[in-house]
Structure formats: structure tokens, C-alpha cells
Amino acid sequence: MNNILKLLCNNTKSIVSSHMSFFRDNAFEIRLRINCPVEVKNNCGNYFLDVNKKSRDILDDYYLIKKSDIDETIAKLTLNSIHAFEKEMQSGYITIEGGHRVGLGGDCIYNKDKFIGFKNITSLNIRIAREFNGCSEKYIKYFISNHDRVYNTLIVGPPLSGKTTLIRDIACYLSDGIKELNFNGCDITIVDERGEISSVYNGIPQMNVGKRTDILAYCMKREGFEMSIRALSPRVIISDELGTKDDFEIIQYALKSGVNIITTAHGYDIEDIKRNIYLKDIIENNFFERIVILNSSKYPSKIKQIYDTNKNRMIFDDRA
């Protein structure tokens, strides 16, 4: 939280600082919106905050965020040089020290049909990065075959279900090795298109992704897969968020090259992701040997089901 506090404007910092014990209780978002109170989300729900006060309801006497508060926070986030962060802001967010991500809202600017940034920023969503070391430990055996091979795996879950957290922890285990499973560890490349898996800040990963892991941060998926296979020789490529037209060819190229893949997709179950025509083709062509379904955001990184596509059956079911 110290990395977040030092970047908040004075008014917001006073409010957040008065609730530090609350933030230690699995808070995962701080939202600042003009003319609204500070809002925080944790596993128990949404709360509005003022100094030493919190409520699920909007109360009239709570401090309301001003435009000057947003401007002051943006100045701190960008070190008073917003132009230096223009490229990153084109993705709709800024990554700060500690791996935390600040989502942006406001007046969008386009050059023809391409989004190029914001004119006025009116809201900030600070997503608090947390490492849940060991969150994949009880499941990791389902990702490995015969102690030396990694299954091609698609991890499916709704927003905030912990997909990125889970694949980060899986990367650690596969990279460093798993003594209990006689798995010695292997070279991994993380194609981190949004810089979220490794949470790179100033070129330094803020999260532990393993000792045998190379990172291609802010690299488009196609270029990342191609560069990785040609130059880094990974046994496994880990990436985030399939679902585009290019993904079918990218996955096919990697598998033909003998590389295994672990990646994610937004959805609630297999039938849900099949509504995306590109993911439907990937699944029906049996590119993945395992499909993992995560639980809701109330239980981040908790696996609900694991489906073996080769045997066409469920091999893990924790719905109860």
C-alpha cells in the first residue's frame, strides 16, 4: 500500500490512510470518480470511505472527489510528464511500482478509428496487485504429464476470478521445479501483452515468475510467440487472454513448433467461451488438452473444474 499512498493526492491519501487495516483485508480496488466518494472493493463487497468512516451507502457528508484531486493524482502517477506515459495510456491504464495498475476513464481521443489517449481524465481505478504464492500448489499436478511434460492448458474465468494470479503462480512452479512431482523445472517465456502477469515497472518484474522465466513485456501476442520460439527456446509459453482472430494461427504455430502453451480466456464455462467464434475453433480443433474453469471473483484463483479434452471427461470437480 505504501507504493499506492505516495501517489495519491493529499485529500484521498488522508481518507485511505485512515483505513489501513481495512485494506489489509483483501481489498482489490480503489475507485476515484469526480463528484463521488472514494469507493473500495474487497471480498465482502463495495464500500464508500471518508476519514475514519465507511459505509455501503452514499452519505451526504462524505468527501467528494474533485477534478483537482484527479489531476494531482495523475501528475504523481506520470511524474509530472504525462507525455512520457502516452503509449502506456493508450492501453487504458498506467502500471505503478509494486505492479499495481491504474485504469483510466474520461474523454477518449481518436485518430481516425484508432484510440490514442484521453483529453480529460475523470476517474481512476487502482487495482491492487497481490501475490498469492502457492495458490496453484494443490492443482499443479493436473498441469504436468509423466513428470516432464506440461499440458497445453486453457484457463477460463470471469473478470476478477484470478486468472492472471493463477498463471503467474503456475509459471513459478514450472520454472523453478516441483520436487514432490520430480519435475525439474523448464524454460518459460511469458508473453505479457499488457504487462500484467509479471507487473513490469521500469523494466523490472514486480512479481515472482520463476528463475527460468523470460518476459516479453508489452509485446503483441503474435510477435511475442514468434520471437520467443525463434530466439528464447522455451518449453512453455504463458500468455493472457485469448479471443481474437489471430489467436488460432498463433496457437497452431506454437504447437507445431513443439512448444506447450498455458493461457487464459474470459468466460464462465466451456459453453460460454464457445460463443466466441475464434475460441470455438481453437477448442474444437483440440489445441488444448486441459480446460480449467475458475470459480467466481469471491474465490479468486480457486479452480472449480478441470476438463481433460483427450479423455473427454472431467478430472477435477470442486463445485460442492
From TrEMBL:
Keywords: ATP-binding, Nucleotide-binding. Residues 149-297 form the AAA+ ATPase domain. It holds the Pfam family Spore_III_AA. SMART domains: AAA. PANTHER family: KINASE-RELATED, P-LOOP CONTAINING NUCLEOSIDE TRIPHOSPHATE HYDROLASES SUPERFAMILY PROTEIN. This is Stage III sporulation protein AA. It comes from Sedimentibacter acidaminivorans. The lineage of its organism: Bacteria, Bacillati, Bacillota, Tissierellia, Sedimentibacter.
